[in-house]
Every structure is written in structure tokens, then in C-alpha cells.
Specification:
- Helix 3 packs antiparallel against helix 4 and helix 4 crosses helix 5.
- This protein has nine helices and 13 strands.
- It is an alpha+beta fold.
- About 35% of the residues lie in helices and about 25% in strands.
């Protein structure tokens, strides 16, 4: 016995029929060799198709999504990063740069070395690190101590390395290196002993003005006390690159009192900045 069907009559503007047929054709909803508008309506009614506007993202949301996916990859959650990327590609109204980045993420998923490095650190196992820097130069390092640190926007491997050639760190910190996880090429076990820690220096700071009350203590602060109208801080520093980037944000409200080597690095950067603006005293 033939299944009873209901019929409806639609009043639609000119050209709508062709548009509906094009949608049905694109979705493969056919009656014989022709697109089926009836099949399209049934699919919508049975929730086989989603109806509504795409997920619209503004520029700040696009940036947040890219950061979230990068952090998932750096943290070793590759499957979660892939799931989020696919969802956005299917449902999001994405800017071209983000869409291209997500397509690359899905087509060529980035292998995260976070789990491998975590295992080496936990086992206190030295390892050879094969790395490509920002200038596309490939290098090899022998790592004998490592920590995963978060600097500004992402996770990094901060490591004590045997190799010191080309290091821009101070002589007291010459063995310390900082590596982006997404630029690691390979990790292989190495022989020898594991170091106890990174190299550190103690930097003395004076904080002034509004920052005296607004300053938020950092995990590497050794001492932190207020005297008169200033705050005095002693901090363990393993990498002056990140340290100077931080205190430059504070401007004239944060002074490096010692050591002279860190003072000189900061002064050199300030001089170069003045040169760029043709402002020399």
C-alpha cells in the first residue's frame, strides 16, 4: 500500500524556486536526476539540516580562537585542537587568514612535542633537541634540564643546553635557551647526566608611582617589600630577554638597580629606540 503524503502550497518570490533547487542540488537531495525541493523541506523538518545564520566572529574573537588552538596544540591536546578547528570551518564566518590557518591545521596537523618533552623532564632524561629558529635555521642542542614556561602568549621550553654558541644571554646565563614548541623538529634521548636547574641571576628592582600598589607579585620574586614611597623587589631571572620585555611595559615606574649587566642591556635597548625616533641626548 502506498504511503500517504501531505501536500502544501507555498507562495514564494520569483527566482526562489531555482534557489531552493540549487541548495538541494548542492546537498545531494534529489528526486531521480533532479533536485528535490520537497526532499529539502523534509530534511529541514527532520533536523537533518541546520538552518540559521553562520557563527559570526569579530576580529577579537578570531584572535582569541587562534590563540586557543595554539595553546591546545602546545599543551599536547591535538585532538581537541582538531575538533575546534573543524567546528569553526563548518560553522564559522571566518576571516581569510584564520580560515587558511585552520585548513592547514586540519590538513597537516602540527605534531606537539609537549608530551614527549614532559616525559623526558619527568624522567630526568637528557635529550637532543632539533630545532628551526625564526630565520629558518636548523640547529641541534643537548638539553640537560628543562621547564615548560608560559611567556606572554604561549608555552615555551626553557632549557639548560650544552651548546652556547650564538647565545644572546648574559655570560652568567649562557647555557639557558628558550624554544617555541611548534618549531621543534625532533627529540631524541641523549647520554649523560641531568642538571639540577637553570642558571639564574638575582635582579634588584625599584618600583615607583602608581605601580607601588598595583604591582602583582611574580613566582620568581625572592623578596618584595615597600619602603617609604617605593617597592623593592629581588627576582630570580633565567632569561633577560623576557625580563626586559616585561619591565619595559612599566616605563619610568620600574628601575633596574642591579646588576650592572642587566642595566646595560636595558640602556642599550632604550638607546636604540631613541635612535629609531631620531631622539638622542
Amino acid at each position: 500500500m502506498a504511503r500517504r503524503k501531505e501536500t502544501i502550497t507555498l507562495s514564494i518570490p520569483p527566482g526562489t524556486k531555482e534557489q531552493l533547487e540549487a541548495i538541494a542540488d548542492g546537498l545531494g537531495i534529489m528526486w531521480g536526476d533532479k533536485p528535490s525541493i520537497s526532499g529539502l523541506v523534509v530534511a529541514i523538518a527532520q533536523h537533518q539540516l541546520e538552518v540559521g545564520s553562520v557563527l559570526a566572529l569579530d576580529p577579537s574573537q578570531n584572535t582569541a580562537i587562534r590563540q586557543a588552538i595554539r595553546l591546545l596544540v602546545d599543551s599536547g591536546h591535538i585532538a581537541d585542537a582538531q575538533t575546534l578547528a573543524l567546528f569553526l570551518l563548518e560553522h564559522g564566518n571566518l576571516e581569510t587568514p584564520l580560515r587558511q590557518a585552520l585548513l592547514e591545521q586540519v590538513s597537516h596537523p602540527t605534531e606537539s612535542w609537549r608530551r614527549v618533552i614532559d616525559q623526558q623532564i619527568k624522567a630526568k632524561q637528557p635529550f637532543h633537541l632539533f630545532y628551526e629558529d625564526s630565520q629558518n635555521k636548523q640547529m641541534e642542542f643537548t638539553v640537560r634540564y628543562g621547564e615548560i614556561r608560559f611567556w606572554e602568549k604561549r608555552f615555551y621550553l626553557e632549557a639548560w643546553c650544552e651548546e652556547t654558541e650564538g647565545s644572546l644571554n648574559l655570560p652568567e646565563l649562557i647555557h639557558n635557551r628558550c624554544f617555541r614548541l611548534d618549531r621543534i623538529i625532533n627529540v631524541l634521548p641523549a647520554s649523560g647526566s641531568w642538571q639540577d636547574r637553570l642558571e639564574y641571576i638575582e635582579v634588584h628592582l625599584q618600583v615607583l608611582g602608581r605601580l607601588v600598589k598595583a604591582y602583582e607579585p611574580k613566582p620568581d620574586d625572592i623578596t618584595n617589600e615597600v619602603k617609604d614611597d617605593a617597592r623593592y623587589i629581588v627576582r630570580r631571572v633565567s632569561n633577560t630577554f623576557w625580563f626586559i620585555r616585561e619591565i619595559l611595559r612599566y616605563g619610568e615606574e620600574c628601575l633596574v638597580l642591579s646588576p650592572a649587566s642587566v642595566q646595560n642591556q636595558l640602556i642599550s635597548k632604550l638607546k636604540k629606540l631613541c635612535e629609531h625616533y631620531n631622539f638622542l641626548t
